[in-house]
Amino acid sequence: MSEESILAARQVVCGYDERDVLHGVTLAVTRGEFVGLIGPNGSGKSTLLRALTGVLPLRSGEVFLEEQSLSRYRRRQIAQRIAVVPQLSGSIFPFTVRDYVMMGRTPYLGRLQGQRPTDVKVARQAMELTSTIHLADRPITDLSGGELQRTTIARAVAQDTSILLLDEPTAFLDINHQHEIFELLSRFNTQRGMTILCVSHDLNLAAQYCPRLVVLKDGVVYADGLGSQIISEHMVREVYGAPVQVDEGPAGKPRVSLLPGEMITSEEGHR
Length: 271
Known about the structure:
The chain is α/β, with parallel strands linked by helices. 32% of the residues lie in helices and 27% in strands.
């Protein structure tokens, strides 16, 4: 574990029921990093986020937050340090955007305590930062996918944490909204110094915006490093079992293109 890490896992093993999903994962995120967590379905990406926030109990290993064992923190203390944007989903209750974002202030309020002027101010700033202030009185059930995702990020920003974990923040969004979300995250990282760990299935978005990439495969860390070092035809073939061409995209970042008409058998993909 790095001495400078703000969030780290050491030999973490965890899963669901009797099945292990993570098999000894070790990972350290340094304060101020923007890290992309990539890998195929079922590789353990979402499970790792749950482990890092203490939502999923560990069978063995340990998670560290600001150099202390996560087990030493109360849930409220964790929520004051780590905000989570889950996978995009609808809501059956029509909260207004303002009320939904205000939920991000919950970790700072006592039992039955009402919102304070400070909470209103922070929530408004979060909506302004995410360009959702004009939606404040709209029910979240009436929002488009992009609007809902920005609102969910606003709720996380209202938590006023130094760490932001996101699970597929651009899933089901069109290309314009995907770009919009990652530009927003990039600003939070560079202008506000926020530490970000973002799960993404889009290799090109991850390579474009995340200086560091961590690849999970079958519940273990397959690779960890700069995107230019990680993204390769061999890696995609080995991890995803997909035939691709990798060349240089914008700003010298790797660009992945699927090769139509080619197939890789499961045996080939795991050589």
